[in-house]
């Protein structure tokens, strides 16, 4: 099972959509979360220009004006969706890996930049975790760091980091290590680790090749 999460910073440009198409094809993606789409609405026509294959299910969480927006897509011959949950800054898909009949919950996150909005997001997901007592994988842009080492400046927001840490502990989430590098966000000379995958069970590690 191959999962792609990518902060697109808007999907208006053709070269971005072509890049996503190439990634989906090259890495044989089964589930794809596109973050910060900046799309006020989405359509099957638009989705087909990104994932040009049959048997694709999709779900969108529309942008507020020109801010935010998420698009979730999955190959329904590999991942069958039973239930869709969503809120401000996230989309969650509960379903099963078709070939193994393994049930789990996968969530794409584009967390708000505002600390209080992020706190509400963490609270909502903690409630959701209690409602779906199945293995979780949660990935995306959390717009928060855990410690000083997650920023090249060494400066972090203690209240935000502590709130994020409590959320991870409450949901019993463990980080899935990156294959290479440490920082995931770059702007000028600034670097931060904002994007990362987490799991609330290692029972499906064999599905993530």
From TrEMBL:
Any Gene Ontology CC annotation: nucleus
Pfam families attached to this UniProt entry: Exo_endo_phos
Domain Endonuclease/exonuclease/phosphatase: 4-196
Entry-linked Gene3D superfamilies: Endonuclease/exonuclease/phosphatase (3.60.10.10)
Cofactor: Mg(2+)
GO BP terms, alphabetized: base-excision repair
Keyword terms, alphabetized: Hydrolase, Magnesium, Metal-binding
Gene Ontology MF: a single term: double-stranded DNA 3'-5' DNA exonuclease activity
Domain of life from the UniProt record: Eukaryota
Protein family per UniProt: Belongs to the DNA repair enzymes AP/ExoA family.
Protein name, as recorded: Uncharacterized protein LOC105121247
Organism per entry: Populus euphratica
């Amino acid at each position: 099972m191959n999962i792609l999460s990518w902060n697109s910073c808007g999907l208006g440009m053709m070269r971005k959509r072509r890049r996503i198409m190439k990634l989906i094809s090259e890495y044989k993606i089964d589930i794809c979360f596109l973050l910060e789409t900046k799309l006020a609405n989405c359509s099957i026509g638009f989705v087909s220009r990104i994932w040009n294959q049959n048997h694709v299910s999709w779900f969108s969480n529309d942008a507020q004006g020109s801010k935010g927006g998420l698009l979730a897509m999955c190959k329904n011959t590999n991942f069958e969706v039973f239930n869709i949950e969503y809120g401000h800054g996230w989309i969650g898909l509960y379903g099963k890996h078709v070939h193994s009949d393994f049930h789990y919950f996968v969530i794409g996150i584009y967390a708000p930049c505002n600390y209080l909005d992020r706190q509400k997001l963490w609270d909502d997901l903690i409630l959701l975790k209690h409602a779906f007592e199945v293995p979780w994988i949660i990935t995306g842009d959390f717009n928060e760091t855990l410690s000083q080492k997650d920023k090249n400046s060494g400066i972090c927001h203690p209240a935000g980091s502590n709130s994020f840490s409590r959320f991870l502990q409450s949901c019993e989430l463990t980080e899935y290590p990156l294959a290479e590098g440490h920082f995931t966000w770059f702007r000028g000379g600034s670097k931060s680790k904002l994007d990362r995958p987490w799991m609330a069970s290692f029972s499906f590690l064999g599905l993530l090749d």
